[in-house]
Structures are given as C-alpha cells and as structure tokens.
Amino acid sequence: MQTVLIIVHLIIVLALIGVVLLQRSEGGGMGLGGGGGGVSGFMTGRGQANALTRATAILAGLFFVTSIALTVMATSTRAPRSILDGTAPAAPAPGQQAPAAPQGGNVLEQLQRLQGDQPAAPGAPAPTAPQQ
Question: In Å, how far are 9, 38, 39 from 31, measured between CA atoms?
C-alpha cells in the first residue's frame, strides 16, 4: 500500500512541476506561456490562467494529502516511546568501576575531567606532565 502511495505521490509531484512551469511568469521565465508560439495557442488569456491556477491548487492539495498519508503510514508501525527511555547510562560490566559523576564546573571542564579519567589506548605512550 505504501509503495502505491509513493508512486501516486511522485506522479502528483511531476504533474505539479509541469503545471507550475506552464504558467506565465512576470519576468518571462522559460517563455512557455509567452506570446509567440509554444503552448499559448491552445488556450488564451484568462482561460489559461484560471485552468492552470485551479490545476495547481488541486495538485497542491493532493500533494499535501499524500504527504500526510505517507507520514501517518510511516509512524503507525512504530511503537510509542517516551523520551526518557534509552537515556539512562549503561550499567558497568561486573568487575569494572562505574565512571565517577562529574562534579561542578561547566560542560568543557566536566568533559576534560572525564577524558583525564580514561586509561590510555593500548600501544599509545602514557601522557606525561610537563616538566619545569
């Protein structure tokens, strides 16, 4: 069902692009709606403006309806969840110490403290304090 709706949505999008490009613009645009030739021969003046305006409005409405339908279909399969779920820190493995909670200071100072508490990577030299 979702695949069919996506195909219909794409057809509406292509039709909407075509109808918008056919409309006469103030600056001339692509020249399709202009005076000499092109598509201006099959309809003239107000009839063309009314038909293209109406077609644009209908296609825009269909575009919004299919967009909302696709959104509802995509979110209906997901189970609702709280924003508080999944934010708790993972428990340390047995035999390991839990990391110390940062105390005071701004975020940068807390991150620097946490980085200083982590052991050095294997094979990397341990950081040494500068000597004075």
Answer: 28, 8, 10
Record the pTM.
Answer: 0.48
Both tokens assigned to 81: 């969840």
Query: Is the pLDDT reported for residue 111 higher than 90?
Result: no
The CA distance from 66 to 7, in Å, is 10
Residue 58's CB is within 10 A of a number of other CB atoms, namely 14
> Which string of b and e fits 7-44 if b means at least 16 CB within 10 Å?
eebeebeebbeebeebebeeeeeeeebeeeeeebeeee
Range from 14-23, 108-117, 121-130 that averages highest in pLDDT: 14-23
Mean pLDDT score across all residues of the chain: 74
A 10 A CB-CB count for 85 gives 7
The letter for the amino acid at 49 is A
Residue 45 φ/ψ region, left for φ over 0, alpha for ψ in the -120 to 50 degree band, beta for the rest: left
User: Across residues 32-42, what is the average pLDDT?
Assistant: 51
